[in-house]
Design brief:
The chain is of the alpha+beta class. It folds into two domains: 83 residues, Methane Monooxygenase Hydroxylase, Chain G, domain 1, CATH 1.20.58; 47 residues, Ribosomal Protein L9, domain 1, CATH 3.40.5. It is 53% helix and 14% strand. The chain is built from five helices and five strands; from the N terminus they run ααααββββαβ. The strands form two sheets. A three-stranded antiparallel β-sheet has the order 4-1-5, covered by helices on one side. Strands 2-3 form a two-stranded antiparallel sheet. The termini are far apart. The relative contact order is 0.09. Belongs to the GINS1/PSF1 family. This is DNA replication complex GINS protein PSF1. Component of the GINS complex. It is found in: Nucleus.
Length: 153
């Protein structure tokens, strides 16, 4: 270290240039990696809103263990927050991502699901190809999961 300092002072300015250049390259690579990781976290956060609290295996397969852990922590934080607002039952912020035009929608069942309870206590049997007129907020999650399909008239 003492000899390289003396070499630089004695005219080896090419070493100083190379050291500075290498340092700038390392800083640039670090910024790029941090931007990439931050973008992945934003996408993982968006997956919670799109798919719900359980991710499909095809998506989880492409996530690292740390990303899965971050997703689980985000999911718990969001659930805690939703329970803390909106009274006793809490407020589900993941429903009605787009403002509804009507409270009830017509849906078609794409696969056998079984019994589905509506908020008034009645149950509906969701069988493949059956059509129902249901409250939007109750079936929006099933639409995102691919169980139901919104029939547009």
């Amino acid at each position: 270290s003492c000899s390289s300092r003396s070499e630089a002072k004695s005219g080896r300015t090419d070493l100083i240039f190379l050291i500075r250049f290498r340092h700038c390259c390392l800083l640039r690579n670090q910024r790029c990696i941090l931007a990439y990781l931050y973008d992945r976290l934003l996408r993982i956060r968006a997956l919670r809103w799109e798919y719900g609290s359980i991710l499909p295996n095809t998506i989880q397969f492409h996530m690292s263990a740390e990303e899965v852990e971050w997703f689980n922590q985000y999911k718990k934080s969001l659930a805690t927050y939703m329970r803390s607002v909106g009274g006793e039952e809490g407020l589900d912020l993941t429903q009605d991502i787009k403002p509804p035009k009507s409270l009830y929608i017509e849906v078609r069942c794409l696969r056998d699901y079984g019994e589905f309870e509506i908020d008034d206590g009645t149950t509906v049997l969701l069988k493949k190809n059956s059509q129902h007129f249901l409250p939007r907020w109750k079936c929006e999650q099933l639409i995102r999961q691919g169980v139901l399909e919104h029939i547009l008239s």
